[in-house]
Amino acid sequence: MLKKIKLSAFILFLFAGMQLSAQSFYKEMQSKDNIISIGIGPSFAYLDNGGQYRDYNFELKPSISASFSKRLTDRFEIKATGGVQWITSGGNPSTTATNIWKANNSSFTAIGSVYYFDVMPSMYLVPFGNHMNRSLFNFYGGFGLGVMHSSTEQTKSFNSEEKPGREKITTGYVPIRVGLSYSLGPLSDIALEGSMLASFTDNLDGNVGVNKYSDHLVQGQIVFRRYLFSTFDR
Q: Are strands 76-88 and 109-124 parallel, antiparallel or unpaired?
């Protein structure tokens, strides 16, 4: 009798285990169409007092981002990204440049941070209908529209005794992002991602008209991507 009870219990536990395994496999096979990402890496700001860019004489600062992506098809997704980048002036400006800055009452230095948020469509080079079937490597990219807010301390000279003034500005920008992802497993990727945030202003640094283009932010980040729940209607 005891042997029959043990055998029945073993069969029951075995059946229950098979059921749980089947349910888990079914859940994994359901397409997970939502992705969260966290990125960190070096960055620099293209500013009028930012340095000599052709000579690579400028300052690197950290940047952090977080994003949420919603897959729309096997190739396209919509992506919302927010983050912060620290910026600073730099380089060794010539006497001619500083004389012009002084005459225009422009800022010699600018140090602070820029907070940003944008939304953009993104496209994958290799399409995939299910997260379980994605390729080992994939290339993605896109552009969109966003808004940024900068807060910097600026000085009108290189005099160390000058008290910096706080300046704030909010403006729009066009984000351009490309990345190369590598699949770590069924639900995770690691990616190398490059971004340029092309702003609509030349005054993030309090210095206008020296460079040919407006002030822009450039980032290179290592991004961890995680596939989450399936679509809401499933």
A: antiparallel
